[in-house]
Design goal:
The protein is of the alpha+beta class. The chain contains three helices and seven strands. Helix 1 packs across helix 3.
Length: 135
């Protein structure tokens, strides 16, 4: 468990390094999930040529969804987006899901700041105790 208490500081090294490692992995199911220990709130990044922050709407309550719409709009992103992705609970059958996304390119420090920004701007969790899940 690691804690980060401010959005104004540089992102923690462990988070930047995890996102750098994600860019180097070649397995199709590579991911990094950054989760708050207490609330279970999370943001995720999947494998790709760039670091795309993915915030599924299904994981948000109504207030968080409204804050996410405003926050992502301020970034100039069109949101939320509907995507079709395999549903692991149904043998990979494609199912639509709605998500907020932002592409940070290969900027792992920027992507780490973005993840922390979601905890601040969308979840309203100051001083979240974060941990990683990686594949």
């Amino acid at each position: 468990m690691r804690s980060h208490r401010t959005m104004n500081a540089d992102p923690p090294r462990w988070l930047v390094e995890a996102l750098q490692d994600l860019l180097r992995r070649h397995n199709d199911d590579a991911f990094v999930i950054i989760e708050d220990e207490k609330s279970g709130k999370f943001v995720q990044f999947g494998r790709g040529p760039t670091l795309i922050l993915d915030l599924p709407v299904a994981a948000l309550n109504a207030e968080e969804t409204a804050r996410a719409e405003n926050a992502f709009r301020a970034l100039g992103a069109e949101h939320p987006r509907s995507l079709v992705a395999p549903d692991p609970s149904e043998a990979g059958i494609p199912r639509p899901h709605v998500t907020f996304e932002y592409d940070f390119g290969v900027d792992s420090a920027g992507a780490a700041r973005g993840a922390l920004w979601v905890y601040d701007q969308v979840f309203g969790l100051e001083g979240a105790s974060l941990f990683l899940q990686e594949n």
